Amino acid sequence: MSFKMGIDLGGTKTETLVLDNDQQPVSRERRATPAQDYDQILDMIEAELTRAKSRFGDDMSLGIGIPGAISPRTGKLRNANTQCLNGRELLHDIEQRLQCKVRIENDANCFALSEALGGAARGYRIVFGVIIGTGTGGGLVVDGKLLNGPHSISGEWGHNPLPWWRSEDGAVTCYCGKQACIETFLSGPGLAHNYQARFGQACSSAEIVAGAARGDESCQLMMDCYYDQMARSLAHLINIIDPHVIVLGGGMSNIDSIYSAVGERLGDYVFSDFVETPIVKAARGDSSGVYGAALLWD
Questions:
Q1: Do 134 and 189 contact (CB within 8 A), yes or no?
Q2: Which residues pair with 130 in a beta bridge?
Q3: What is the reported pTM?
């Protein structure tokens, strides 16, 4: 039996998963990421593969999900929030260290692939996977295949401007240098920042959600704005891609009211006489990305 190993290299934790031929997990580990030291990250990846092979044998593929993406022009990693990775030839260095072929993809792409092949979006032809957490990312899968273009930025919807912008939305400068990026509204930190700008009080995204649930007026107003901002952002996607399903992951996807509240608003913005695009919650939770990494060889 051959095995598929996936590593989800996060900013604070790294998750390792080994799947059998039926996509069933036979091993799963989580460890703290040595996020400040590039060589220690390579050491950790090598140690994870060595441990897995000692248990399951050498017939094992390896896929790695990463923050950011590798530039097709330079081969160097860019846009990673784990700063020590940026500007490094990560794929080359890992393959040299391990002496085997490895596949590496953006973590949001891994998430989308996971949910398309064995999660909440299984059976749908065109799948857009959205991560809304500390950032906002996305990935596109068609007919079970991950799509990526010549710049390796497919699915980076979070760094487009919020559609149909209104003055009450406010305008925040994103870390990318542009203003009013979708990420600055739909991420957890974005929601908290916009609440403080609007109401003059510091609250976390979790506190805003909880406040809305218990009837706090300012929190309810903020969440109503958030739902509409998400509906506009997803409608923009539907107008361009027209996916059969949109699947949400990341910490903000655990807000159960999103699915009905956003779905009800899509018709106000989608360029169609009807909207049937389901918005569903990821089936594999916060482990979905590591499943996708393991499945990169599929």
A1: yes
A2: 138, 248
A3: 0.94
